[in-house]
Design a protein that fits this description.
The structure is a single chain. This protein is an all-alpha fold. The chain has one domain (about 50-360, about 400-700). The protein has 28 helices and no strands. It has helices spanning about 15-35, 40-45, 50-55, 60-80, 90-110, 120-140, 150-155, 170-180, 185-190, 190-200, 205-215, 220-245, 265-270, 280-285, 290-310, 330-370, 385-395, 400-425, 430-455, 460-475, 480-510, 515-540, 555-570, 580-600, 610-620, 620-640, 640-670, 685-700. Helix 16 packs parallel to helix 24 (about 580-600). The radius of gyration is 26 Å and the shape is globular.
Length: about 700
């Protein structure tokens, strides 16, 4: 959801008592490292670190290309169904290790192996794959980009309103992504030393990925990785075959296991059912329990209580003759109350992270000046552990020139300013110039905040661009499309900036060169700029109801982003009666819930997360039930055997997600070829079934 929008762990920088404890623990760890304990780099000290050019191997990019295609299908499916995207770093690192290790083992037996497989090469693969698959999210195929389409626009148009749209086309989508996806990489490159070495930012996801990759390349870790891959393969096969089996029963609308009324037909009517999705059971196993519970609470609050109550006010709160998709009817309440909660949560976290970022930056600079008179700690300083000395030495060795980063940013910005107005005539050149002036500062804030909290606010920056540029352009000058395009520009810059800094942290801890990390990110981004539009195009052509509410791929965030842009240029006068009041209430509620969560600290484990609560407001609870089933499976497994669950849980979840995700490729090909399933499995009430039986019997008599 909104860029892998999972519950993140706060670092608690504002609690001095906890900081002192953490400092003591860090000091103990450092001393143990000096004594030879807990030192990762002592395990690898006899292995030569390859040069940055040797880390960039043909086999690494070949494996990255194959995995990029696979993960792009997975992310695209998640994008177009619910928008909830878990972190796939573990899967990318594990599969990259497995494929290259198998390849090198085979070459070693044949005597043709020229270069062994290293953890640095493993890091290059993981970085390239995640960068490529990340474009499937930041490219906006389930949000701002698809929100421009006629298919989505028609769902928001009332009466004689004029349509403002730009339909997807493979050519302009690839061109647009190549223009906007590289700016973020250049914007933070000069700050890598400050972020990683001087400020020692945590970057939890990058750190966790590095520890995983380091463990793979130890004898014990390699054995565990083989077992994990075996489990992943089992559940990949099961998930793929389960998707294939389900296909046979989906010959018509609302057919198959995905429409099984597990909780009864009335509950099914309000989207409470288990849809047998292996993908979302797997996602539920990866996402924290509180995310899954928050989704379910949001579904119960909206579809179980609010929508039936508002529906009973039909004719008063909204016109009785409004269509199911009309934003002047019940659909308007669903869309705008969800938007209000998302904006409330996003803005609260935006100001929280920015304020913490500025405070932490102030203290970091103050402490550094006090301790070192403004000078960084020397590489050979005795205050550095053995691991830190080795890693810092290599990290500073392969510099990326500042002139290269600045020149790359300016050149890419000029090209973008010159070309984007020709693609989107509504987006004037001076709008883009203003975005690019502020973008480096916002990219730094996002990258720094992500290092502190692991929370990327890329989608929030994108939403701010929708409202500011949309309002600046105005409705009469194409403000809707201008706002959505500006959202894409800003989201891509800040998203790739934080991703690159995460990768620098991973590279620092695995002793991969910053240059190889940067090149891998660039290559992965370039792959994604081609792969992701092609994957989306396959979905777009194969499924004519893509983006339609209630379909297999409703693309919920596309309609939400379109209506945000519409709200930004038209104002609130078009909302149905009482919708504005309820939206304001839920906007405030999202802020209050976040305040309570932050006030309670670690005791807030039972308080739901507003962003997660908002998603089922529009979609329903069916996927939340799937995710809660996944969460329950993991919880029971942990109670029975925690060590085994922790070791193999992510592999099992990744297998379920990958198998079902890859099934979408043959499913799309079958749809394009016009091959339809042979059976329609539908579920009817007893009364409806009796009527159909009577009708069929009367038809036989007449014949």
């Amino acid at each position: 959801m909104e860029n892998r929008r999972e519950e993140k762990v706060e670092n608690g920088n504002d609690e001095s008592g906890e900081d002192e404890k953490m400092d003591l623990e860090d000091e103990k760890k450092r001393k143990k490292e000096e004594e030879g304990e807990l030192s990762v780099e002592r395990i690898f000290e006899k292995k030569e670190v390859p040069s940055w050019k040797k880390q960039l191997t043909v086999r690494a990019f070949a494996v990255s290309l194959g995995l990029s295609v696979m993960f792009s299908f997975i992310v695209m499916k998640l994008n177009l169904t619910t928008g909830i995207i878990p972190s796939l770093n573990v899967s990318a690192g594990l599969l990259g290790f497995f494929f290259v290790k198998s390849w090198t083992k085979m070459l070693h037996k044949s005597g043709l192996l020229n270069q062994p497989f290293t953890r640095q090469e493993n890091t290059v693969i993981q970085t390239c794959v995640v960068a490529s698959a990340g474009i499937a999210f930041s490219g906006g195929f389930g949000s701002y980009l698809f929100a421009m389409s006629e298919r989505v626009a028609k769902q928001s148009v009332e009466g004689n309103e004029s349509l403002e749209f730009k339909n997807p086309a493979l050519g302009w989508m690839i061109g647009f992504l190549f223009i906007v996806s590289f700016l973020g990489l250049f914007s933070v490159v000069p700050l890598r030393k400050i972020m990683i070495i001087d400020f020692k930012l945590t970057y939890p996801s990058g750190t966790a990925t590095a520890h995983l990759i380091n463990s793979f390349h130890t004898p014990e870790g390699a054995k565990l990785a083989k077992k994990q891959v075996r489990e992943l393969g089992k559940f990949f096969s099961f998930s793929f075959l389960w998707g294939f089996f389900q296909w046979f029963f989906t010959a018509g609308d609302n057919c198959g296991f995905a429409n099984f009324p597990t909780l009864g037909l009335k509950a099914y009517e309000y989207r409470f059912f288990f849809d047998f999705s292996a993908t979302y059971v797997g996602v539920g196993m990866i996402c924290p329990h509180i995310i899954n519970v928050s989704l379910l609470i949001g579904g119960i609050l909206s579809w179980g209580i609010m929508w039936p109550l508002i529906e009973s006010r039909k004719g008063d709160w909204y016109p009785a003759d409004s269509s199911a998709s009309s934003l002047h009817g019940l659909e308007g309440y669903k869309v705008f109350i969800a938007i209000a909660m998302i904006l409330g949560d996003g803005l609260y976290n935006f100001f929280k992270v920015v304020s913490r970022t500025l405070m932490a930056l102030f203290y970091q600079l103050r402490d550094r000046d006090a301790n070192t008179n403004g000078l960084p700690v020397a590489v050979g300083s005795p205050s550095l552990s053995y691991d830190s000395q080795r890693r810092t030495q290599l990290f500073l060795k392969d510099q990326i020139p500042t002139w290269f980063a600045i020149g790359g940013y300016v050149t890419t910005a000029v090209i973008s300013i010159a070309t984007l107005p020709h693609m989107f005539h509504q987006l004037k050149w001076y709008y883009i110039l203003v975005l690019y002036i502020f973008a480096p500062t916002l990219a730094f804030c996002n990258a720094y905040g992500c290092g502190l909290t692991d929370w990327s606010l890329a989608s929030t920056y994108g939403k701010l661009a929708i409202f500011t540029i949309g309002a600046w352009a105005g409705a009469s000058n194409g403000g809707l499309l201008a706002g959505l395009t500006a959202c894409g520009v800003m989201l891509n810059i800040v998203s790739t900036a934080s991703d690159l800094m995460q990768d620098f942290k991973t590279g620092y801890l695995t002793m991969a060169s910053p240059r190889s990390m940067f090149v891998s990110q660039v290559v992965g981004t370039a792959m994604g700029c081609v792969i992701s539009p092609c994957v989306f195009w396959l979905f777009y052509k194969a499924f004519p109801d893509l983006g339609i509410s209630g379909s297999e791929y409703p693309a919920p965030f596309a309609i939400l982003y379109h209506n945000m842009a519409k709200l930004g240029v038209e104002g609130v006068s078009t909302l149905p009666k009482n919708c504005l009041v309820l939206s304001c209430l839920f906007f405030v509620l999202a802020i209050v819930i976040n305040l309570v969560r932050d006030a309670l600290g670690k005791r807030a484990w039972f308080i739901p997360i507003p962003m997660a609560m908002a998603i089922p407001f529009y979609l329903g609870s069916y996927f939340a039930i799937d995710m809660c089933v996944g969460s329950l499976i993991l919880y029971v497994w942990q109670r029975i055997d925690r060590s085994k669950a922790d070791a193999f849980g992510p592999a099992v979840a990744s297998g379920l997600i990958c198998g079902d995700g890859i099934w979408t490729l043959p499913n799309s090909i079958l749809a394009l070829a016009g091959i339809k399933p042979p059976i329609c499995m539908k579920f009817l009430s007893r009364g409806t079934n009796t009527k159909i039986d009577k009708f069929l019997q009367s038809s036989k008599v007449l014949n």
